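Re: Re: ligand-bound prediction request (bumping)

Still looking for help on this. To restate: I need the protein modeled with aspartyl phosphate bound, output as structure tokens. Inputs repeated here so nobody has to scroll up.
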Amino acid sequence: MKVFKFGGASLKNADGVKNVASIIRQHGPDKLLVVVSAMGKSTNALEKIHSLAISGQNSSSQITILNDYHQEILKQLFPAGHEVYIAVETLFQELRTQLQGSGEFDQIYDQVVSIGEMISSVIVHHYLISIGLHSHWLDARTCITTDKNFREGKVDWIKTSAKIQALKPVLEKNIIITQGFIGSTEDGYTTTLGREGSDFSAAIFASSLVASSVTIWKDVPGVMNADPKRLSAATVFEELPFQEAAEMTYYGANVIHPKTIKPLANKGIPLLVKNFEDPSLPGTKIHECKVYDLPPLIVFKDNQCLISCKVTDYTFVTEQHLSIIFNALSSLDLRVNVMQNSAISFSFCLDFREHKVLSLIQKLQEHFEVYYNTGLTLITVKNYDEKTFEMYRSHAGVLLEQSSRSTLQVLVRL
Ligand SMILES: Nc1ncnc2c1ncn2[C@@H]1O[C@H](COP(=O)(O)OP(=O)(O)O)[C@@H](O)[C@H]1O
Ligand SMILES: N[C@@H](CC(=O)OP(=O)(O)O)C(=O)O
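Reply:
Sorry for the wait, this slipped through. Here it is.
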């Protein structure tokens, strides 16, 4: 059996849904489970709706814009009176109810933002039925069990795998359509797996079903040695070892979610990255292989924050200081992307998740003089050569630089 994953870019309008349906129709004789993300930029829109509502502002015009966007897609795909209209309206009702719910910021966020995937999966499912395919709609929350770490739910693999394996009889006669990005706590609250987590969902299903492959359908011809939106000369890899792909995603190559590779590599399931606009292109095969002479691989990670903690009592930075800093990071579940120390200060950069980073800074200020800069970009050059090394080191606006024998990292203000 195979797993396909279609992201927001492939489902951004009615033609996108038709194209996805045509790829599914042509998939061949294998059993198939399809994971879909929210349409277009719906998750960003839902994040905005949530943040307006939480801060006591009126979110109704943003909800209307999101509803209109989906209604336009529906109108182009289904005749008036089709049952899908009621299904989507029910989900918008659910959105309004959740916005009025009580609970922690992150908990409400997950109840609200997950609705994008619910809507898109319902639309794709009904469209597949309308063109004569045997589609079975699955609520991913009935299979993917996580802890209560809202916005970054940690998967309970034993429970999740058992529930996913129970889907095998359904797959005999149906194509399963389900949501990426979402799961559920044991007591029934929706959780999300981290932004752009639908690739990871595909890997969870594939690993539990021991699929023969996972294909993630993207708007690029495959995995490239840099984001083609940043470097137009980027070239496509025919194949890549799991290890290399995992490292790329760790440094921030957002073509694949960082948690996707491990479950697939553990079971030896190849990950294919293919282009949904031209499925005839070969794409990239990520699997256990050796590739020699890889070109320099350049990864840009935006929205970085550089924090410097300076000791205030004329002592040097000690292990006790580092322990305070790392305990604070760990208590907020924050990950450091690069770190560096001098005699009297310790600097590190991390993703700027405003809410959490400001709490971190507050904690650190109890012990250090804290300085911070936001709006930075971390550029990582893996397998650098002389030319790329010099080029990125001498980049304008470097705030921090670090290199090993194979990897250069510079933190810059672009
Ligand atoms: N190394 C890379 N190779 C290919 N694409 C990359 C790379 N790094 C970043 N990207 C970006 O990833 C995008 C595809 O991922 P994403 O937008 O998350 O897709 P989707 O939302 O459809 O899952 C591409 O449009 C491209 O700009
Ligand atoms: N919709 C979610 C999950 C996701 O993975 O989306 P996409 O496949 O479009 O990156 C997000 O935007 O974070």
